[in-house]
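Supplementary Text 2. Reproducibility record for the structural model of the 243-residue chain.

All settings were left at their defaults, and a single model was retained for analysis rather than an ensemble. We include the record here because the model underlies the residue-level annotations in Supplementary Table 4.
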Amino acid sequence: MVKIESKLNNRFNRVLLKLSGESLMGDQNFGIDAKMLKHYSLQIKEIVEEGIEIAIVIGGGNIFRGLNADATGIDKVTGDYMGMLATSINGMALQSAMEKEGIFTRLVSAIEMDKIAEPYIRRRAIRHLEKGRVVIFCSGTGSPYFTTDSAAALRANEINADVILKGTRVDGIYNSDPLKNPDAVKYDELSFATVFSEGLKVMDMTAFTLCKENNLPIIVFDINKPGNLLKIIKGEKIGTMVR
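Retained model, structure tokens:
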């Protein structure tokens, strides 16, 4: 595949997109909605066609959340590994959906499973990006006690991404939950220090600290609105930026 040259007017050239597993459920209570897979694939295709290098980290909460393991009697470490396998299922589904749209992909796992995914090797992952392939990182960090937010922050720093784009169901960061409080105030831009001081929830503390210490900006935006991903790449002020 010949890599498409990135347009000079784009705001970012290499990005890491963080998607929650729950985002794949759509209107369902569990599992994967084919309409959501297609929605994300088409948005990703738009920025691939701009020549943007994109990696993706996806959660597994639509299938199993390690945080819920205690309620089932499953020990913490086992529950976390089960959550990592759930992210691999989501990664496979997203890979299949994107390939149907003609996007070249690589599924890369932090846990060895050579029949379905490549092992994570930093230099190889970067080379895939340079060749125009979308890299889907699954299995979190490969270790228990770390969330997929932490995996996103870690991988974004390792591949020298320009930004983490955190796709959510709301259009940015608010001073309270906008789904519960109609008077919640949205922020257009925040500093890392302000997020800390006001106790705003952007990512878990491990992930957030990793971004802060490496000056890696985070944009929280509504991934469910068509075109938002491309608008961010083009330089429009969508969502909330933390830097």
